[in-house]
Design a protein that fits this description.
This protein has 141 residues and is an alpha+beta fold. The chain has a single domain, classed as Heat Shock Protein 90. The protein is 35% helix and 29% strand. The protein contains four helices and six strands. Strands 1, 2, 3, 4, 5 and 6 form a six-stranded antiparallel beta sheet that branches. Helix 1 packs antiparallel against helix 2 and helix 2 (40-59) runs antiparallel to helix 4. It is globular and about 40 Å long. The structure holds adenosine-5'-triphosphate and magnesium ion (MG). Adenosine-5'-triphosphate (ATP) is lined by residues 52, 56-57, 60-61, 86, 88-89, 91, 97, 102-105, 107-113, 132.
Length: 141
């Protein structure tokens, strides 16, 4: 289920243009997950998901932006939403890109598949030649 509303906390934007921005992005996600009351195990899952997505935006997408939002659904359940977008080449075959072991670079090709397994909601919106946006949500148990 997609979030119905944002909480009072404003979404936060993080630009990922350089190597050091990856660390800043990880720290920001950790802080939001702590503030939202996630367990340490869940914090780590959320940070790992964020890390893979911002690394993809940096390596494959030529840099991008991550938006962190604390969200709530209509039942009052809260969660964290991460949306990572870039203006890179896009992904021609999303199914292939999601498969474990597929990489067009030097990676293991486990980033996208692994990320999907760490979150409750996973959406890729990509257009070849225009860019990619991956949005994930992890709900609090
Ligand atoms: N933001 C993106 N823009 C363009 N292509 C992407 C993007 N994210 C992923 N891809 C494509 O999907 C493939 C699979 O991504 P995935 O994250 O699973 O593996 P990887 O980044 O190659 O390696 P790993 O993440 O294991 O280090 C990439 O090799 C790349 O071709
Ligand atoms: Mg990757």
């Amino acid at each position: 289920m997609l979030p119905d509303e944002l909480t009072d906390q404003d979404p936060r934007e993080h630009t990922v243009r350089a190597e050091e921005d990856l660390l800043t992005a990880r720290h920001a996600v950790r802080a939001s997950a702590v503030a939202a009351g996630f367990s340490i195990v869940d914090q780590t899952k959320i940070v790992t998901a964020a890390s893979e997505l911002v690394r993809n935006a940096y390596i494959h997408g030529g840099g991008g932006t991550m938006t962190i939002a604390v969200v709530r659904d209509r039942f009052g359940r809260s969660g964290i939403s991460l949306s990572v977008r870039d203006g890179g080449p896009g992904i021609a075959d999303v199914e292939q890109a999601m498969a474990d072991g597929f990489s067009t670079g030097a990676g293991l090709g486990h980033g996208l598949g692994g990320t999907r397994r760490l979150v409750d909601e996973f959406t890729i919106d990509t257009t070849p030649g225009e860019g990619t946006t991956v949005t994930v949500v992890r709900w609090k148990p």
